[in-house]
């Protein structure tokens, strides 16, 4: 059974900033074809094989985040990927991770001081946690890409 919410999200991503023509050009397909495929009310649907290129061309992670959420996973952006590491770089990564996790812990503890995390505090906590996760994810990507250490 089709996931209507995902289909609507594809439509929203494609029409963000009225950029569907640019996305179609990057994907190498005619604009009218793509417009029909991302329309949630049309029969002709977007192919699963086209999804990675569509996401890349749209430069929007909401579809990835939606799919991860459906599988109880978290999508985390990585600022730069696969850099060559030396010992100094690794130590800098570790210092950044320590800083980010400390900041996240401090914000959560501060938010819990009154026994309740309100929506503003929750947003701030989640941002700090995402920063900490991103720092760890970047270190992981760099270590996976570099076998010289």
Descriptors for this entry?
149 residues, mainly alpha, 66% helix, flat
Polypeptide structure, described:
The protein has two domains: 4-70; 87-145. Helices cover 66% and strands 0% of the residues. The protein has seven helices and no strands. It has helices spanning 4-15, 20-27, 31-38, 51-58, 62-70, 87-112, 119-145. The termini are far apart.
Question: Short summary of the structure?
Answer:
With 149 residues, the chain is mostly helical. The protein has helices at 4-15, 20-27, 31-38, 51-58, 62-70, 87-112, 119-145. It contains seven helices and no strands.
Question: Could you give the topology of this structure?
Answer:
Layout: H1 4-15, H2 20-27, H3 31-38, H4 51-58, H5 62-70, H6 87-112, H7 119-145
Helix pairs in contact: 2-3, 2-4, 6-7
What is the rounded Rg? 20 Å
Q: What's the overall geometry?
A: flat
Residue windows where pLDDT falls under 50 for at least 5 positions? none
Order of helices and strands: HHHHHHH
Helix proportion of residues, in percent? 55-70%
Structural class: mainly alpha
List the quaternary state of the chains: single chain
Number of domains: 2
Arithmetic mean pLDDT: 86
Tally of helical segments: 7
